[in-house]
Amino acid sequence: MTRFAFLFIGLLLLMQILPASASQGKAPSLCNIEHPSDNDIEWECHRLQKGETLEKLFGNRWRDVLRFNRIDRRHIYRGIYLKVPKQLDDIENFSPMPVTYPPAEKDAKFILIDLSEQFLGAYEFGRLVFSAPVATGEGDNCTPGGEYRITACDPRHISSLYFIEKTRKKYPMNYALRFYINKKGVEFWIHGRDLPGYPASHGCIGMYDEDMQKKFYKNPGKPLLRDARTLYAWVTTPVKDDTGFLVLKNGPKVRIIGHAPLEGAECPL
Hints:
It is a single chain. By secondary structure, this protein is an alpha+beta fold. The protein folds into two domains: 26-91, no CATH class; 102-257, L,D-transpeptidase catalytic domain-like (Beta Barrel), CATH 2.40.440. It has helices spanning 3-17, 20-23, 54-58, 62-69, 210-217, 227-236; strands at residues 43-47, 81-85, 110-114, 119-124, 127-133, 146-149, 152-163, 170-181, 187-192, 205-207, 246-247, 253-257. The protein is globular and about 50 Å long. The protein starts with a helix and ends in a 12-residue tail after the last strand. Residues 1-25 have low confidence and may be disordered.
């Protein structure tokens, strides 16, 4: 066997051992991802060392640290760079979304998504009732800004274009809420997916869905973060049919503002 063959096999084995985000070498330091609200909190950059876990470092504030970094537990691994507030109290129940949003004062339900913050807020008559980190589109697969409305829902939607990494299984888009169809007929949804801490989708808006991650990736072992399911229930209540795709009449308005970090160009509609 040639030296090149040995090197190639070794590389393949290494890629199988390392987490996907690490082995691909594409994951940027989260300390370099800039959100407007970062300027409101004193933080320092910390590289996760061997043996360190979120629970050991931050106790019961580990969820707040995840929200502040817009990342899920599956993408936490040794060597990753995280933003760590100097005072954890500063990020208790962290959310950069405005507590009140006057443009939504007349709407029983209204969804505001800030691409710059990579965060979503759900409002009832202009008052924030729920917020969550998101992962939106990146580069040529950007998430378009503008005014939309939720027109359909599907608790077990499945992508027709994309697969779970390293498999031929279509990517699950649980708790999906459709908000836009472009001129090419491509549908854009809010749904459960992976959150690596930076824009990474093909244009949809992803939210925590650890049940899906455990099923397909076996990580985390004990699912706790279920923001996609929470938003889905809020949008669809009091709809009783929750078994499959359903067209919604007069679904909540959706407003998408800002520009996503790392996005390379304006997003064509």
